[in-house]
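Example record

One chain of 852 residues, shown exactly as stored in the release files.
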Amino acid sequence: MNHSKTTKLSPRRLKAVGLATVGLMSLIAWAATAAPPPPPPIPIRPLDPVEAKTVSYKKQIKPLLGLRCVSCHGASSPSAGLSVLSVKALLKGGEHGPSVIAGKPDQSPLVQYVRGIKQPRMPIGNGALSVDEIHLIREWIAAGAQDDSAGKAGKTAVVDEGVINPSAPLEDETDLTLAQIRAKHVARLPAAPRVPTVSTTTFNPIDNFVAAKWSEMKFPTPAVCDDATFVRRVYLDVVGKIPTESEASAFIADKTLDKRVRLVDTLLARDDDYAAAWLPWWEDALASNGAHQGGTGTRPNLRQWLTVNLKANRPYDEMAAELIDPTTQTPTAMMTKGWIRNDDHVETTQSAAYVAQVFLGTGVKCASCHNHFLNPEWTQRKFMGYASYFAPKDVEVIRCEVHEGDFVPPAFLFNQPAARNVAAHIPSDLDNRLKQVSRLVVDPENPRFAKCITNRLWKRYLGLGIVEPADDFRVEGNAPSHPELLKWLADDFMRHGYDLKHTIRLILTSRTYQLRYDPKVADTYSASSPDKPRYVRSPALRRMTEEQLMDSINVMMGNGTATRAAYEEDSSALTRALGRPSSRNEVSTSRSDDVAVVQALELLNGEEYSSRVSGGAFARAMSLERDPARVANHAYWSAFSRPPTNPELGAAKKFLRGESASLPEAPKPVTENIWFDSMPPAGANADPWTSAPEKMFLGKPSHSAPVAEEHREQHFEGAATPLRVERGDKLFTYVYIDPAKPPRELMLQWNDGNWEHRAYWGENLIDFGASGTAARFPMGALPPAGQWVRLDIPAASVGLSVTAPVGGMSFDQVGGRVYFNRSGVIPEAKPHAAIVDMVWALTSSPEFQYIH
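Predicted structure tokens for this chain:
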């Protein structure tokens, strides 16, 4: 038998150990006496029995406990056995007995712990509750700890999700295409809700559903808006910018009865503008990121994918399915690769939550850590089953960072027939899991997919959704304001092939959309009063997005060739102040409508905004106009799509005469501000750069790339003296094309911190940037050969402005021999200051910046 070897300590070592032990014990004793005393209990104030009876568990106490306590006391194995998920659980309590004693707030352990009378004070690591929050809990307990949640007070609506025939026989649809599944499932949908009969004037079935509620409430029929309001509203909603003066005046002068319907059709046919108007919302919603937004994106740049599909009006279910499943055999599928991310647990659950939020209007992200406290529909285990579809293997339940060893196989969120069909055949590989879940998401029998997008369209054009919040559909609560209308819209959308433009047209041609804005009856939504009825007797007031505002200013100022704001690459203080995100790293389906001091400061004193409202053909032309009345008339038509009222006209004439704005200034000669000639500016790093003394321009040699068939370039960066450019300026470069060796394409690029500012002539061969945008703006045919030609490029067309100086330039070509020389900027002639002030006043007004 082996015995453990012992070590004999020397007397000196024993003495050292003894001293150390005595010292350690002394240190422990000192630490105990030196420990700070617990903070005093949080004070309380007297209770009012009458006020206490008004406190709602559902609306006040449950959200408060969910926010502050559920991370530790909301799981299936809550800390100390105490769950705060229901009144029943609070009354039952945990390991130490009941947490709440009805009618006795100050004897209730819940109050004693959150006040700090009992230690440790709760919640741990989540900040102490305020005096007001504790008072609210005490009032509720004092009034008897009543439960007014669903099933008690009967006020929470239970929404009919319309799940189709859950006992239908199982079917194998693996070999069917998405289009075949759509046709098959749409054919077995139940009939749409009956369109109600009403006595008031209606334009299409939407109006019948809305007017039926008016009739029920005995409301008078509200009036429709005038033509000036309609033309401006519908232009902003469909193409994302206001009409020109000529477009607005022509529409108003038209006396035909169907002109509003024809205008809607005309605008929906403007595919490029339609896509540009929709693009910002979708980029926000999908967290589309890339070089155009800066920073490190969490999702790929989906701009090209979105533009292609929106212009083509591709069926919405195909777009959503392709985004979830990039292995789809379609031309654009590979553009979506990387949107679903699943490298780890967090990325997998986040991808699953994003799909549910954007395409199903369902907020399930909270259930990734614990059972959803505010929506009992989503337990954590149910969410993990859904998330497993987005991973190559089953996802583990990790509850508040604790791994539970419970791996949940894929299971869809809703009990639609297709979900039961596939339950017995769950793929083991990621590609087929994504294919399966993509089909379940867009399935016509999915109770939320079609409702979610039709609700978003309603919110986009009327200001508030039929369901609010639009990202929080629930079985219990958040009931639709017009449930039968939402069902009918979703059904109509599916039966018309998931055609976005069809449903948009239906909404825009309804009488409901065309109602006059009336703040007295306009609906509002507040999270504090979610059950407040909505009747749609007026559209809600909507603030223009940053993109709508910038594009509309360009329309007013006559900058017709300016790049659409959706495609501008730069983030500036102005764009951020107006709500455009500087980067898109989180899914967001709405921007704040709140106004802030920073917005006012940018509009009042911002250099960029001043540049935008002072540059353009309108300000220059009005500076030469002698008649103040004509100036005012053009200005109001250009800004508001209407003539000025008599008081407005009088005020404008008085202002313009006082400022002598009617006296034209002598036109100033065009001046070239030369940046450099044959060699790059001082301090620039050029590579490659080849001088060409054989071709002189004004006594100076040119520069040219060697002849070759492929793409070549000469460029420089880091000029010590950068080029200053304002939006109304024109960039210029002189070129000479060898008539014996013409190129196929010419391209100029400017660098103001990035190279996303390009113009090209000839064929569209050099694959830089998105074609048709500021990153690759088409200028037409090649210039004439055999002579020096000045190429003029509007700065706005390539997205350059005062926000950043240009420090680099590139000269590109495909094939041929081209000589380049003098480059710089031609400053825009400055308009009269009074005209600029007038434009600023109009464009900064609520009438301009809001959609009425």
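Notes: The longest helix spans residues 11-34.
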